[in-house]
Amino acid sequence: MTKINFRWAITHALDEELARDDKVFLVGQDVGESGGVFGLTRGLYEKYGGWRVKDTPISEEGITGLAVGAGMIGHRPVVEIMYMDFISLAIEQLANQAAKTFYVSGGKIKVPMVVRTLAGGGFKAGIHHSQSLESWFTHIPGLKVVYPSTPYDVKGLLKSSIRDDNPVVFIEHKGLFSLKGEVPDEEYTIPLGKADIKREGSDVTIISYGKSVHQSLEAAEALAEEGICAEVIDLRTLVPLDKETILKSVEKTNRAMVVYEATKESGFGAEVSSIISEELIYDLDAPVRRIAGAFTPIPLGDAEDAHFPTVEEIIKVAKEMCY
Amino acid sequence: MTKINFRWAITHALDEELARDDKVFLVGQDVGESGGVFGLTRGLYEKYGGWRVKDTPISEEGITGLAVGAGMIGHRPVVEIMYMDFISLAIEQLANQAAKTFYVSGGKIKVPMVVRTLAGGGFKAGIHHSQSLESWFTHIPGLKVVYPSTPYDVKGLLKSSIRDDNPVVFIEHKGLFSLKGEVPDEEYTIPLGKADIKREGSDVTIISYGKSVHQSLEAAEALAEEGICAEVIDLRTLVPLDKETILKSVEKTNRAMVVYEATKESGFGAEVSSIISEELIYDLDAPVRRIAGAFTPIPLGDAEDAHFPTVEEIIKVAKEMCY
Amino acid sequence: MDMKEFKLNYYEKLYLARHFEDELMKLFADNKVVGWIHSNKGHEVIGVSLALAMKSHDYIVPHHRDRPAYLAKGLSAKSLLAEIMGKTTGCCGGIGGELHIMDVETRIYGPTGVLGSNLPIALGIAYANKLAGNDHVVVCNFGEGGSNRGSFHEVLNMAALWSLPIVFVCENNKFVEFTPMQKHMNIEDVARRASGYDIEGIIADAFNPMETYETFKYAIEKARRGDGPTLVEAKTYRLDGHYEGDPMKYRDEEEKKYWLERDPIIGFKASLLNESIANESELESLEASVHQVLKEAVEFALKSEPLKVSDTFKNVYA
Amino acid sequence: MDMKEFKLNYYEKLYLARHFEDELMKLFADNKVVGWIHSNKGHEVIGVSLALAMKSHDYIVPHHRDRPAYLAKGLSAKSLLAEIMGKTTGCCGGIGGELHIMDVETRIYGPTGVLGSNLPIALGIAYANKLAGNDHVVVCNFGEGGSNRGSFHEVLNMAALWSLPIVFVCENNKFVEFTPMQKHMNIEDVARRASGYDIEGIIADAFNPMETYETFKYAIEKARRGDGPTLVEAKTYRLDGHYEGDPMKYRDEEEKKYWLERDPIIGFKASLLNESIANESELESLEASVHQVLKEAVEFALKSEPLKVSDTFKNVYA
Lengths: 323, 323, 318, 318
Ligand SMILES: Cc1ncc(C[n+]2csc(CCOP(=O)(O)OP(=O)(O)O)c2C)c(N)n1
Ligand SMILES: Cc1ncc(C[n+]2csc(CCOP(=O)(O)OP(=O)(O)O)c2C)c(N)n1
Ligand SMILES: [Mg+2]
Ligand SMILES: [Mg+2]
Description:
Chains A, B: Residues 4-179 form the Transketolase-like pyrimidine-binding domain. Chains A, B: Its cofactor is thiamine diphosphate. The complex is a heterotetramer, with 2 copies of chain A and 2 copies of chain C. By secondary structure, chain A is of the alpha/beta class. Chain A has helices at residues 6-20, 44-48, 60-72, 91-104, 134-138, 151-163, 212-225, 243-253, 268-280, 311-322, and strands at residues 2-5, 24-28, 53-55, 76-81, 113-119, 144-146, 167-173, 180-183, 196-199, 204-208, 230-234, 237-239, 256-263, 289-293. Chain A has a 7-stranded mixed beta sheet, with helices on both faces. Chain A has a 5-stranded mixed beta sheet with strand order 9-11-10-13-14, sandwiched between helices. In chain A, strands 1-8 form a two-stranded antiparallel ribbon. Chain C has a single domain, classed as Thiamin diphosphate (ThDP)-binding fold, Pyr/PP domains (Rossmann fold). Chain C contains 10 helices and 7 strands. In chain C, helix 1 (3-29) crosses helix 2 (44-53), helix 2 (44-53) packs parallel to helix 7 (209-224) and helix 5 runs parallel beside helix 6. The N and C termini of chain C lie far apart (42 Å). Bound molecules: thiamine diphosphate (2 copies) and magnesium ion (2 copies).
């Protein structure tokens, strides 16, 4: 085990997959010579050359479709969409082309590809550089959606996503880049579709993903001091969703909340909340609560914090649920 | 009152608004001389001329942005996106530009505009001509989302949408075009944000919108014969959502289901279901159920029916809930 | 292949394309087709020329009027017709229908319901081939209407920048649904846009079979040599409506007459006879064999199993 | 306005733009700025020339390096600086910051965080003006990098097709973030792409103030007359990094030196003196007044109230 930060875990995963399989290649703005706007592809251009680590023009639709086409004939492209806010430009290729090709070809043409994209707040850069738009993609059959929260997870999940035979939207929260965590020295992968119980508990289940997992854990610490034992589930993969882990936990705790940074309304937490209520309503001691982003665009600067879930809010709601 | 079909109700609404306010204009592929691929703009080109009823190239992103710009300086553009499947090409302008301009200008620049788009099955034309993607937009603060079900509603709501000072995604279900209904001879509008109880009942609340409203009503008829009295709420506007009408009804019936044609997972029904469970869990005699589109792309031909909610399914679930 | 063989082969493929369309329209009128059909009468020379100029390992990423290319490239009439009729024996098992023909064997890729969205896919296939270091060429087709989507610009720029092995084929048939192309752009020639990417733009008369063939051959071999992309604009005319059922009120009948008189299928046949490349009886037997193929295809498709509803819940994920 | 007055006015605006940037960088270093800043050193001539060639009722739909245009068009340094510092006295109340400057009064429209997305918005403003039958012109700016987004193609096509009153300004500064423009396109001149839309494409040397001014003046008046759009490519050089903090490892120092030596602000001043349009003391007093404006702006912005968090929950809907 070595402690590395989230940022490097991404770079290592890309590096290992580029080395392992020459069908893997990267495309994106500034992913090449400059090593990436966030330094996430540092060193890869030198190691694998300009064709496997390709700087592209500002053409998000085009490069996402490039990946669709390359994937169709057996390559394993990894696209970077610099900010998830710009994924609006790529959604046609993801939702209409990548997601539907295997289906409409009668199961004959697979589209392995990964779109990595940087989501969430933390850079305090306002309306066009801060969104988390995972629910656009969880609504589209044929896409997988991954949203990791730790260096260990991001590395193992990114490697699995690259090896997966389906299009994967892989979301990296900008607020996690400097987070450090243990990562094995030997090679490993984490299967898509498996949630991870990041903390065991018995009184309330906090379901979360991405950066919100850490707020949930922090809240769980605080709650423990007040005698509330919270279980924290990190979904890690939103599609396919690990319902089993969610439901088993809520059966035990009888209380659930979903914490996510995206806009609450029609966010992925609505799906999770609905499933829990559908399946376990008679077990619930309190309604499932969602703690999530405000119904506003994201303002510039520190004000953004007030638009995202906070540890205090999680604690407050957990207490309301448990007392 | 005159009986007209849904299709004509749209045309009349456009005609009346074009006549009323010279800031209103239409843009879209084939909306002009040819009268529209579905005949929805028939006669308007002749009446208002080629600048106010503008045929455009195949440039969905461009024409949606055209509306954003024109809206910003006080015009009231109405764009047609021929199939909602193609709205992926327009979502950048809707979600990042139109939706956020009023906010980021500090409340100084409004963006009145309507994007009309044709959603849903009925044409049996497969993966790229059948989707209903409203939940992409209900997730974006700053947009309004309207999804009417009758000639009366579509006319009144379209007129209100055109007069609204915000960007509105206005969804017309293709399966409703030939539906006939009463429409007043005199001018009227229907406020956005008000649901309509299409049938009163006491045993279970069926919440729906668009074409699914009619299936819900049909199911309610059948259920009545078996002694189950269903209340059918037509949301009409998804954003802003008329929570009050929903909650009042469910308080009365203690049972709720949401019926919608879009993919169930992360669809708008998840939001409605979550709200009901959050607010009224102690009143519920059964979990809120969602009856919605299958988690698949939409296949060609009659097979599509099996991927959408059916009257039988609604009846079956209602019975499960009530017994 | 000598010239005679080549030309007869060419004529057979032209004839097949045209008569496939006739059969399809009959089946459509008989309600045997699922969804729409978009006639490609007037486009045959493009598809046939392309297929003959391509190698079997070359890829095509088509648009919605490219049945002539599918057939000429080797997709069987049976498989194609069955797909359009929603039968399990179709190339995609009947789930996609007319708009979404794909076939790994004959290297037809990219579902085409959203205009312009096939261009980035074609770019990706070309990129992957370049990366793999092989000599496979990608042909990507679209209409003059669809070429106004932004994807055209992004893709031509990248293809040119990286000198990818790809040929862009604009099938300019003068109409975009129910409006003339003049309502969509203020230029006559889409080929003119090539210069903005510093690539070659060439116009071919798609009512002239050999000219069109030579043009494609040139562009494809250029791409194969590593000399980068070409934009070929094939000038044609949509002889039928946008889709079956289109009343075509917008059509100038004089114009249609002008084009009908130049119908390349009739003209090419005449040239074969005039230039004594073939005699009547040779052509008749060739035509008869095409009709036999089509007859078998129709029978095959009619008696094939329709897509089972239960199968439409499969293949969401690989 | 006589020539002297015009040139002094021009110089004042250039000088203001450059020194505004210096003040901004100091404030940034002092942590007084919210979010990023993208220096526009090297772009000043473009913004100033545009603003002087425009009428006050003309619109600008800018990109992220257009502060010189804002200031020259009349947005006060106070309002602009306060906005960038997230203060309530900023033109948008401090909620947008550097990337999203808009102002109804001076007709600056379109939030610009997503490159290329401002072009369709500019098209719409021009369309509405044409519809209204007035003579207002829209100027739309973007970088050579952003011009590879599909929106460029869709918008230029429609603007040309409908002969809209709009001027497209490509500010070609040779860099796209951390890569040279040669990694983004295989042409030298974006202006060359105009021909694909049958509109005029003109190159202006944006280190030459009067040439740039005359070029914009020509294109804007042409649009005003109803003679349709022009694509002007203003050739410049990004003297600073992509954003403050960029270490610029990719930069060729010789190249930078070459451009710095031609710095138009210094050169223009020299020409004013050489051509005896103004004397040293006139220019000094003009410069002093600019510094006074900036000093007041800095004080104003510093002491202004920061955006209240509670206000960031407002204005979601009109
Ligand atoms: C993005 C998109 N917009 C609109 C349509 C609807 N549509 C289908 S075919 C067609 C006309 C296409 O014209 P062109 O590209 O010239 O091809 P043609 O049909 O003439 O062969 C249109 C507008 C579509 N399929 N995709
Ligand atoms: C659609 C989109 N893709 C990527 C970015 C990130 N980005 C911001 S500035 C920039 C470079 C822009 O280059 P250019 O258009 O030449 O303008 P310049 O910064 O050189 O003035 C990039 C890639 C963005 N803002 N929007
Ligand atoms: Mg056409
Ligand atoms: Mg640049």
